[in-house]
């Protein structure tokens, strides 16, 4: 409608896809549970960022998304909060393996995502662990054995733990490829492909990238199912 168009114009949002729902311009309109909105308000956030406003309604309809937006635009909560809803809706036992998998290029980014997942998910009893290199595998494997809803991982360490037979990805039904362009620049494509082979194709996939080069477009067309594309700002 006209107000959705005006909001998109004002916030430099362009969408490519059929029947794209209008953006959520306030937190109240998201339908996220009160315990999550309390934490959002406690963090001092006044309104969704443009990527959140436009990608939340799409993600909540279980559509695949490719989002092209630069850093600092609030992408983490853009995929985490719909991920929490997905976990609640599917209601799987975390002991059987994670429901949500987030792939991230570096240890630093992965731990930031885990911190955000814990901060916003704790009140909904959502559990999360982080797998990254340069640290002992034992404690990471023990966390997996406890059972967690969300695993945030760098592709290299996740591959190592897969090869040890210490993680099962057959319950994953919400997959996030965060900073996809950076993961490909770092040479993680072979590991990403091995991981994707272990995840059921019946899933929701969300891909976030700051740039939109050929390698990223190829991965998107190979592994996403009719994604809605959301671009924020001027992108190339
Ligand atoms: P990106 O992944 O796009 O680089 P982040 O998800 O790391 O961005 O978010 C950048 C910063 O903005 C973080 O400190 C985050 O807590 C904050 N943030 C996220 N959503 C909002 C919001 N709606 N309003 C204000 N700040 C937000
Ligand atoms: Mg990020």
From TrEMBL:
Domain DEAD-box RNA helicase Q: 25-53
Chain ranges for the short sequence motif Q motif as given in the UniProt record: 25-53
Superkingdom, natural source: Eukaryota
Location of the Helicase ATP-binding domain: 56-230
Family: Belongs to the DEAD box helicase family.
Protein name listed in UniProt: RNA helicase
Organism: Aquilegia coerulea (Rocky mountain columbine)
């Amino acid at each position: 409608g006209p107000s959705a168009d005006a909001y998109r114009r004002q916030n430099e949002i362009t969408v490519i896809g059929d029947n794209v729902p209008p953006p959520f311009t306030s937190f109240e309109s998201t339908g996220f549970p009160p315990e999550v909105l309390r934490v959002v308000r406690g963090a001092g956030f006044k309104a969704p960022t443009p990527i959140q406003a436009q990608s939340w309604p799409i993600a909540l309809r279980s559509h695949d998304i490719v989002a092209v937006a630069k850093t600092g635009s609030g992408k983490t909560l853009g995929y985490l909060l719909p991920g929490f809803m997905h976990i609640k809706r599917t209601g799987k036992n975390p002991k059987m393996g994670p429901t949500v998998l987030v792939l991230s290029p570096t240890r630093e980014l992965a731990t930031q995502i885990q911190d955000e997942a814990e901060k916003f998910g704790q009140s909904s009893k959502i559990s999360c662990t982080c797998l990254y290199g340069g640290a002992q595998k034992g404690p990471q494997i023990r966390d997996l054995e406890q059972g967690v809803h969300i695993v945030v991982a760098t592709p290299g360490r996740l591959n190592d733990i897969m090869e040890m037979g210490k993680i099962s990805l057959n319950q994953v039904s919400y997959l996030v490829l965060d900073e996809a362009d950076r993961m490909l620049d770092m040479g993680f494509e072979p590991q990403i492909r091995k991981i994707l082979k272990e995840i059921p194709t019946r899933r929701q996939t969300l891909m976030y990238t700051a740039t939109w080069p050929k390698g990223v477009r190829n991965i998107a067309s190979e592994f996403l199912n009719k994604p809605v594309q959301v671009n924020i700002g001027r992108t190339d």
